[in-house]
Design goal:
Layout: H1 22-51, H2 54-77, H3 81-90, H4 94-114, E1 118-120, E2 123-125
Antiparallel strand pairs: 1-2
Helix pairs in contact: 1-2, 1-4, 2-3, 2-4
Keywords: Membrane, Transmembrane, Transmembrane helix
Length: about 130
Amino acid sequence: MNTSNPYEAPKADVAMPVADEPQTELVASAQKLIIYAILAYFAAAVVRMLLGPVGLLVGVTAVLMGLVGAYRLCTGLGYPMAVRVLLMVLMCVPLVSLIVLLVLNGKATRRLRDAGYRVGLLGASR
């Protein structure tokens, strides 16, 4: 006779493992910084139209957040130093910097989803 219960729930481990690499955590925190920089770029444009010179301060803050976030993300993704320097130079060009941030955000999203993170509008969560 068969001793197994046909109504018993399966015992398979279906949970996707989350990678606990320090580089993945660096990518997650850098991606949040990049997302905030992208949002600050758009906020700077609106504030500059409404309040004038105050928008410039928001724009400079967005550029600094973008520079730091891009460098940290390139470090987490393992890019060579030459690529990091090239991206930092490209971050100084106004519209190109926004495109660079969007491309880096896409690469970070792909890496984080492969590592088992859920990625939403404002960054990754476990």
